[in-house]
């Protein structure tokens, strides 16, 4: 079974930023921002941790109707979320971008209208059915460069009917890397660190490490769905080890806590398993403690809070 509720206190405490959450319609489920807000009322780490902010995007702009168009266009879908975020400062939006359907001018208008609210741009190549290295991403990436905004890409390695991995799928980490190399100053996050299981995460890890060693892109990863069924978190431990030992020095600032909530184990109006969110945090923290000893607190502080703070709030010294 995926998560077991921890009865012991792992002695780590502090603020948390979840860098990858959603609202909106996803297949047969529909989530409001109120569903995500329920997580703020949960006791985390016996009340010692605090979910401080979430970086949120609207699924209505991401998933497609049967006619292969998003439920809501760039302006309507993003504005729905922005209006909700204006009511609660704990919700910080990413503007969902729709290369092939929308236009970068829409997103630039939003960035100019809400310059202190929008934290970055969100892309989902799989739902767009548009390879992540397509030239239609470039006008949006130019905006990210111009306005100093990070970009969160859904990353995934697909398999064939026999379970064999196929490289070059629309969300493949290498295709995202290819686009990121054209904008080496833009932080680009591999959402899910390569979704698709163990080998997919290995591919995601290698892509990030290669980008650091080559010095040609600023790739990050979030932990949404990484090792979700394994309490020992082997791929999380692997990427931390590799980030600590790059030829460029410690690059653990490239790793962000994220969950994809309220989807999956956190679904059904945010409480499919009431303790799932807390237990997910506890499992990751325990694995880091077990593997990194005296460095654990520093790493946990970075991964769960400071890295996202630095990335999404570069001009703010102290968050509420």
Describe, in plain words, how this protein is organized in 3D.
With 320 residues, the chain is an alpha/beta fold. Helices cover 35% and strands 19% of the residues. The chain contains ten helices and eleven strands. It has helices spanning 33-37, 74-85, 104-113, 125-128, 138-147, 173-181, 198-214, 234-244, 276-292, 296-312, and strands spanning 14-26, 29-31, 49-58, 91-96, 120-123, 151-156, 158-159, 165-166, 187-195, 218-222, 255-256. The chain has a nine-stranded mixed β-sheet, with helices on both faces. It has a two-stranded antiparallel ribbon with strand order 7-8. β4 (91-96), α3 (104-113) and β5 form a beta-alpha-beta unit. α7 runs parallel beside α8 and α9 crosses α10 (296-312). It is globular. The relative contact order is 0.15. Mean pLDDT is 91; it is low at 1-11.
Topology:
Blueprint: E1 14-26, E2 29-31, H1 33-37, E3 49-58, H2 74-85, E4 91-96, H3 104-113, E5 120-123, H4 125-128, H5 138-147, E6 151-156, E7 158-159, E8 165-166, H6 173-181, E9 187-195, H7 198-214, E10 218-222, H8 234-244, E11 255-256, H9 276-292, H10 296-312
Parallel strand pairs: 1-3, 3-4, 4-5, 5-6, 6-9, 9-10, 10-11
Antiparallel strand pairs: 1-2, 7-8
Brief write-up:
With 320 residues, the chain is α/β, with parallel strands linked by helices. The chain is built from 10 helices and 11 strands.
Largest sheet: 9 strands, mixed
Radius of gyration: 18 Å
Give the CA-CA distance, first to last residue. Answer: 36 Å
One letter per element, helices H and strands E, the order comes to: EEHEHEHEHHEEEHEHEHEHH
User: Averaging pLDDT over every residue, what do you get?
Assistant: 91
Task: List segments where confidence is low: pLDDT < 50 over at least 5 consecutive residues.
Answer: 1-11
Q: Give the number of DSSP strands.
A: 11
Number of helices: 10
Spatial strand arrangement across the major sheet: 2-1-3-4-5-6-9-10-11
Q: Strand share of the residues?
A: 15-25%
Based on Cα principal axes, name the global outline: globular
Helix content bin: 25-40%
Helix/strand/pairing category: alpha/beta
